[in-house]
Amino acid sequence: MNYLEFLKSKIDIAKDSGFEVKKEDINPILKPHQRDAVMWAIRGGRRALFESFGLGKTVQEIEFCHQIIKNKGGKALIVLPLGVKQEFTHDAVEVLGYQKPEYVRNMEEVKKAQSNILITNYERVRDGNIEPTYFKATSLDEASVLRSFGSKTYQEFLDKFKGVEYKLVATATPSPNKYKELIHYAGYLEIMDTGQALTRFFQRDSTKANNLTLYPNQEDEFWLWISSWALFCTKPSDLNSEYSDEGYELPELKVNWHELPIDYGEESDKDGQMVIFNEAAAGLKEASKIKRESIDARVKKMKEIIEESPDDHFLLWHDLENERKAIKKAIPEAVDIYGSQDYDIREQRVIDFSEGRIKIFATKKSISGSGCNFQKHCHREIFLGIDYEFNDFIQAIHRCYRFLQKEQVVIDIIYMENESGIKEALEEKWKNHNHMVAKMIEIVKKYGLNQETKAHGLNRKIGVKAVKVEGNYYTAVHNDCVEEVRNMQDNSVDLIHTSIPFGNHYEYSANYNDFGHNQNTERFFEQMDFLTPELLRVLRPGRVAAIHVKDRVLFGNATGTGMPTIEPFHADCISHYKKHGFQYFGMITVVTDVVRENNQTYRLGWTEQCKDGSKMGVGCPEYILLFRKLPTDKSTAYADVPVAKTKEEYTRAQWQIDAHGYWRSSGDRLVTKKEIEEANIKDLQKIYREYSRENIYNYDEHVRLAEQLDKEGRLPAVFMVVAPGSWNNLEVWDDINRMRTLNTQQSRRRKQMHVCPLQLDIVERIINRYSNEGDLVLDPFGGLMTVPMTAVKMNRRGYGIELNEDYFRDGVGYLQQAEQERDSPTLFDFFGIDNK
User: Fold this and answer.
1) Cα gap 791→770, rounded to integer Å
2) DSSP assignments along 653-668, one per residue
3) Pairing between strand 409-416 and 166-170?
4) Per-residue confidence (pLDDT) for residue 671, from 0 to 100
5) Left if phi > 0, otherwise alpha if psi is -120 to 50, otherwise beta: which for 224?
6) Which of 376, 503, 775, 811 has the fewest CB within 10 Å, making it most exposed?
7) Which among 181, 77, 167, 73 is positioned nearest to 122, based on CA atoms?
């Protein structure tokens, strides 16, 4: 496989794993858009149908299962929300003319069943003994229950359904708020691992765990990938402009927001400050208090709305048990259902309301918000309160607001004055949902249901038009580093210093050439196999490649271990470079702040470790891996062009200190323990590091000091102030300034921050130790050009290669600035004074 073929193999289009079904073999009762969707899903094998309410997902799910059983044998299982099995039974028998699906509660009933298509509820699968892998095909109706990553339902279903050959999910609201939730379906369908998809399409916040947002420049690619395994449809003409939309026009929707005033009492917060009223958006505690204290006022308003329209049927949505009781007290004729009620009773009451035998029905969104169809006799809904759960909210609205609804649907939403922030959040999520659906429909209309055309649409992401900017002391290239290094001369580089990407932890550009754009670590090293031999070729014999790396945290919800583990990325790198002929001769450890790291990963949490100390790991340091290209003359192993220093510029004294690894700070005496205890927090980190270097270490004393600082409120939760200092500063560097990167200047200039900036301290030491003045220093992953910029400042020549256009442009600016400073004459130059 050549390099271009490798890049093309990265294109992420969900592969078809099913089979072709002819149009004439599909049940003729299905409408054209339903037929097309079923054929597409069967061909794919594992697919999602994200279709608007009323487009006929029920018959499509049944036909999907019927065709697979007919062609491949076995049995099929459809998993339903409570209260909708009667709809599937009706559609299967009365509409499609198939055998009645049997409802099953456990595996004993499954094995005794005579039907080929069986139905059950989510609770039976999650909490019972039903084994999905027993079935040839499965379908999840109203699969939005999987939307919450990490929930019990999602985790259970991910494991239980793994390996089912044919899988379908169907829902009208696939992503209620954050687009990244869509990829949970991809994980369930086994299209792509959830953790891998998160790092493929979403940029991370390096200061906060799990704070990911979709890369703006990868939005089109993200939606194309989604559309390769998920079908969005709001009306028949979305799939084919020739299909009629008759009967698929939604009725008018009227939303009434009822804001109720609050009592302005005098309360005090935890600091004793008077507050006029609690703000619900401040937190769960405040929101819950507002809910509890306003029940009577909200129920009173609900009753007023009902009494204004005595002939209408009403659907009353509530969340709290006390709300249900208050509704029953104020409106005795209302029929209610609740979680502890017998399943059969609950289901019968749902059926009675849907068929018009019940006029006022009180239920929770968590019970009846998905799957139920109440449009035949009801067009009025009242929400007794609001919360942030948009998916439950929009699903509940569409129990009545559906195709074929003949009346104007009126939604009355009751909320308190101090819940306005929640109202605004719901409206914003509603807007995001509409944008998502519109974006997907646009892609469906552009590419249709053909996977090949979608793959072609992604090919434009491969390759880059090379741009080279040269100065007196630097060369900066916007290009794929593999292609660029291939054009460099043999033995032309004196030092290689770089920070290599993770295999799939970050992506630095919207381009398949990006080394961070790989499925896993193995694929990353496959791409590195094209680069590393070229780096060895261009490096002078005997010279050094200093590779900055860090091990990677693997989270339990992605690995299935339930606990964070560590991928030994630095060890994999050592093996990789040795495989390609580099000689490994050492490793420098750069310690990191474990408190800051925990704020980014949550894997070393104090609370969790108190619950079970066996989970306690350690912080992940960074490493500088040192490799060397063998010199021509191996008898002495000196480099062909040695990194030589005179004894005048590199004195015996400096050699002894470097060799001993003890680098003292610029203080004029040792600090005392008392001075440490009395120091300002901002100075504690530096002072304690020096103290621990100069004194015999005592663990118990170390803990006592930290505890005393904590009692005094001087032990920060965001960084570590009493980190032990290193006694061997040759192998372990504990004094790297983590904030001293080009991101500091990027932030000041309001430009794009680099996701993995390389600290300037590291670069300066490596260049000083392993190169001569005038040497050429190469960084194939140039980023903001930290390495070549530092080389210029240290009287070397820099060579940086970067694929990300924004980083490249900003990096050139830093290089030009460094060169200008180097060339600018000083006062000493005019007088011929050596100012070194």
Assistant:
1) 12
2) HHHHHHHHT----S-S
3) unpaired
4) 39
5) alpha
6) 376
7) 77
**Contact status, residue 412 vs residue 381, Cβ threshold 8 Å:** yes
For the chain, domain boundaries: 27-191+229-238, 253-428
Query: What is residue 443's predicted lDDT score, i.e. its pLDDT?
Result: 73
pLDDT band at 598 (very low <50, low <70, confident <90, very high): low
Nearest to 814 by CA among 743, 761, 736, 740: 743
Cα–Cα dist 468/477, whole Å: 4
Amino acid at 524: F
Distance CA 706, CA 673 (A): 12
Give the model's pLDDT for residue 171: 86
Which residue in this structure is represented by tokens 């997907």?
440
Amino acid letter, 767? I
Read off the pLDDT band of 22 (50, 70, 90): very high
Which residues touch 656 (CB under 8 Å, ≥6 apart)? none
Distance, CA of 324 to CA of 302 (rounded, Å)? 12
pLDDT higher than threshold 80 for residue 498 = yes
**Number of other residues whose CB lies within 10 A of the CB of residue 270:** 5
Q: Give every CB contact of residue 728 below 8 A, 6+ residues apart in sequence.
A: 661, 662
Q: How many alpha carbons fall within 13 Å on the CB side of residue 775?
A: 28
The single-letter code of the amino acid at 129 is N
The class that CATH gives domain 253-428 is alpha beta
Q: Alpha helices, DSSP H only, in 488-593?
A: 521-538, 556-559, 569-579
pTM to 2 decimal places:
0.59
CA distance 578 to 525: 13
Q: What's residue 193's pLDDT?
A: 73
Distance CA 548, CA 545 (A): 10
> What's the start-to-end Cα distance of the chain, in Å?
53
DSSP annotation of 501: P
Backbone torsions φ then ψ of 26, nearest 5 degrees: -75, 140
Q: Which two tokens stand for residue 582?
A: 């580099």
Length of the chain: 836
Q: pLDDT for 220-272, tens place per residue?
A: 777 778 888 988 888 898 888 889 988 888 889 999 999 999 865 555 444 44
The CATH code that applies to domain 27-191+229-238 is 3.40.50.300
Half-sphere exposure of 497 (CA within 13 A, CB side): 29
DSSP 670: P
Which residues are within 8 A (CB) of 176 and not within 5 positions of it... i.e. 6 or more apart?
A: 144, 147, 389, 390, 391, 394, 429, 433
DSSP per-residue string spanning 338-377: -TTS-HHHHHHHHHHHHTTS-SEEEEEHHHHSSS---TTT
**pLDDT value, residue 218:** 67
- Three-state DSSP at 450 gives coil
Nearest to 811 by CA among 738, 746, 763, 736: 746
DSSP H or E stretch at residue 690? helix 681-694
Residues 6+ apart with CB under 8 A from 170: 48, 49, 50, 51, 57, 60, 61, 139, 140, 141, 142, 143
Domains 27-191+229-238 and 253-428 share a fold: yes
pLDDT in tens, 606-661: 676 677 778 777 777 788 899 999 999 999 999 999 998 887 776 665 444 444 33
Average pLDDT for residues 299-316, to the nearest whole number? Answer: 96
Band (149; pLDDT cuts 50, 70, 90): very low
Q: How far apart are CA 541 and CA 544, in angstroms?
A: 9
The whole-angstrom separation of Cα 109 and Cα 121 is 14
Residue 554: the pLDDT is: 77
Q: Cα separation of 184 and 573, whole Å?
A: 31
Of all helices (H) and strands (E), which one includes residue 541? strand 539-550
